[in-house]
Design brief:
- With 287 residues, the protein is α/β, with parallel strands linked by helices.
- The protein has one domain: Vaccinia Virus protein VP39 (Rossmann fold), CATH 3.40.50.
- 45% of the residues lie in helices and 16% in strands.
- It has a 7-stranded mixed sheet with strand order 3-2-1-4-5-7-6, sandwiched between helices.
- Strand 4, helix 7 and strand 5 form a beta-alpha-beta unit.
- The protein starts with 7 loop residues before the first helix and ends in a 5-residue tail after the last strand.
- The N terminus is likely disordered.
- The chain binds S-adenosylmethionine.
- S-adenosylmethionine binds next to helix 2 and strand 2.
């Protein structure tokens, strides 16, 4: 029989190697293991395969976004969703010493580390299971957490995030974006190689969100995206930056990172491909 060359087989193979490993039901176990492996370190909560200088670069960007979005130094109530070891709560506490900040995470070990590192309370609970009487907050922080949820839990999580905001409260959300996916994986090559080379026991890879998926999800649940920040230059230079980070000492690569950081600050509002996008979201149409 003549084989039909419709390239479906090729697309399947390509897709299998390009997909950012969709949700699997060992999410909690994988995070518990990862938190124990890396403890209080950027590799635990950012890119585990990236050199330190790249993780430091992303950490600086996340910190800048969070500190810019959190306004006021009065008595603020903040919830850090998927808090990890407290990476982003710590600079908030430094900026607003009397802040009432709480963390939640599915990993018991991260909750323990969060309490140790911040001296604030934290609870083991998934964002999708947040109880209605958990209280309301001026700000909710949710950085690279929704990416690990399947569609059903994602809807529950979006509803919970919005319903736990005070009337004028804001959600600060950072998630991967598909527009930068090809840069992140060096056009699929990175994922392909990782799956074959890496004998890693921690598989916590999540998804990246396509075009306006986040906006649609939150709009549907009654929220509104007020503004967005992107990382176009970091995305473009991620390959060279990673290579440089592997080959050269941190001190030599840092000035390059600072330059890219500066360019991203200039270009971050433009609709350019970006491996992550930061969103400021209001809880209701009037927020
Ligand atoms: C990539 S790390 C980011 C941690 C922290 N937000 C940060 O940026 O430093 C993802 C975190 O989300 C937590 N997590 C994963 N699924 C979750 C869920 N359904 N509910 C709450 N936390 C979750 C993980 O345990 C992990 O601490």
């Amino acid at each position: 029989m003549k084989r039909s060359w419709n390239f479906e087989w090729f697309k399947t193979i390509l897709q299998r190697n390009l997909t950012l490993n969709p949700f699997n039901d060992s999410n909690q176990t994988a995070w518990e293991r990862r938190s124990k492996l890396y403890g209080t370190s950027l590799k635990g909560v950012l890119f585990k395969g990236a050199p330190d200088v790249v993780n430091e670069h992303f950490h600086d960007w996340h910190k800048k976004i969070v500190l810019e979005f959190v306004e006021g130094t009065g008595e603020l109530r903040i919830l850090d969703v998927g808090c990890g070891y407290g990476r982003l709560s710590i600079p908030i506490i430094e900026k607003v010493p009397n802040v009432d900040i709480t963390g939640i995470d599915i990993s018991e070990n991260y909750v323990r580390l969060y309490k140790e590192n911040t001296s604030h309370s934290a609870f083991v609970v998934g964002v999708e299971d947040l109880p209605p009487d958990f209280g309301t907050f001026d700000y909710i922080l949710c950085v690279t957490v929704l990416m690990y949820l399947d569609d059903e839990n994602l809807k529950k999580a979006v509803f919970n995030l919005l319903s736990h905001l005070k009337p004028k409260g804001k959600l600060i959300l950072i998630e991967p974006h598909f527009s930068g996916y090809y840069f992140q994986t060096v056009f699929g090559l990175g994922t392909f190689l990782m799956k074959r080379i890496q004998k890693d026991i921690v598989d916590t890879q999540g998804r990246s969100f396509r075009s306006d998926k986040i906006e649609q999800l939150f709009h549907h649940a009654g929220g509104r995206v007020l503004c967005k920040w992107r990382l176009p230059m970091t995305s473009l230079f991620l390959g060279p930056l990673t290579l440089a980070g592997k080959l050269f000492p941190m001190g030599a690569v840092r000035p390059f990172c600072k330059f890219i950081f500066f360019l991203d600050a200039l270009l971050g509002k433009l609709k350019l491909p970006s491996i992550q996008v930061a969103y400021l979201i209001a809880g209701d149409e009037k927020g």
